[in-house]
Amino acid sequence: AQSVTQLGSHVSVSEGALVLLRCNYSSSVPPYLFWYVQYPNQGLQLLLKYTTGATLVKGINGFEAEFKKSETSFHLTKPSAHMSDAAEYFCAVTRNSGNTPLVFGKGTRLSVIA
Amino acid sequence: KAGVTQTPRYLIKTRGQQVTLSCSPISGHRSVSWYQQTPGQGLQFLFEYFSETQRNKGNFPGRFSGRQFSNSRSEMNVSTLELGDSALYLCASSLGFRDKQETQYFGPGTRLLVL
Questions:
Q1: N or C: which end of chain B has fewer CB within 10 A?
Q2: Which residue of B has its CA nearest to A99?
Q3: Could you give the CA distance from residue B49 to residue B66 in angstroms, rounded to a whole number?
Q4: Cβ within 8 Å of residue B11, ≥6 positions away
Q5: pLDDT digits (tens, 9 = 90+) for A39-74
């Protein structure tokens, strides 16, 4: 069974500081990994995804994530936080094998301090 | 292209009642998935439909059911509502079913409050 662990339910950074949101996954086969963002009273929006190929994935709004198989990690980073980045972020995993749904982590709430 | 739409956006019901939520996928998308989001459990998968057939089901009791119509629109039903069913119900659509690389596009959700 697949699972996702997001370290830190709440992360607070200053505006302009580095954003680092941690995600570790468990999967017995090569995973497909996703980061989604959820703003208040809205659904989820895809930031980026890793399926195959280049392990450093660039997404929208200046975010990127690196797939590290040896560490079973897919951490999300952004060099400089903006106030508009304040939201909840979800890491998710699935695999191209069988009827496998997306499995989400518990989420990390990002606060950006002016 | 219009996004995923969900109706109603907000709903208040009392224990024991039943409720039906609706989801219209992005035009051309044939797969619809449903998720329940609560502060305690996070996002949990309910079920996935493709070509009017349930393809996958999460670990929820039989009170939770769904269906998909020939135009890919989907409904989910919860019977005999319990207080713990209060949640944000999210619908997501994607082009197909087999290729898990495909992005799921989420609707804004239906917030259900059970009193």
A1: N
A2: B56
A3: 8
A4: B19, B21, B110, B111, B112, B113
A5: 988 899 999 999 988 999 999 999 999 999 999 999
A48 three-state secondary structure: strand
Partners of B30 in the β-ladder: none
Question: What is residue B97's predicted lDDT score, i.e. its pLDDT?
Answer: 76
DSSP A8-47: -SEEEEETTSPEEEEEEEE-SS--EEEEEEE-TTS-EEEE
Q: Chain B residue closest to A41 (CA)?
A: B108
**Number of other residues whose CB lies within 10 A of the CB of residue B84:** 10
- Report yes or no: A98 at the B interface, CB cutoff 8 Å: no
- Strand pairing class (B10-13; B110-114): parallel
B109: closest CA of chain A, how far (Å): 6
Q: Report how far residue B29's alpha carbon sits from residue B100's, in angstroms, rounded to the nearest whole number.
A: 14
Cβ of residue A9 closer than 8 Å to a chain B Cβ: no
What are the φ and ψ backbone dihedral angles of B83, each rounded to 5 degrees? Answer: -55, -35
Residue type, A6: Q
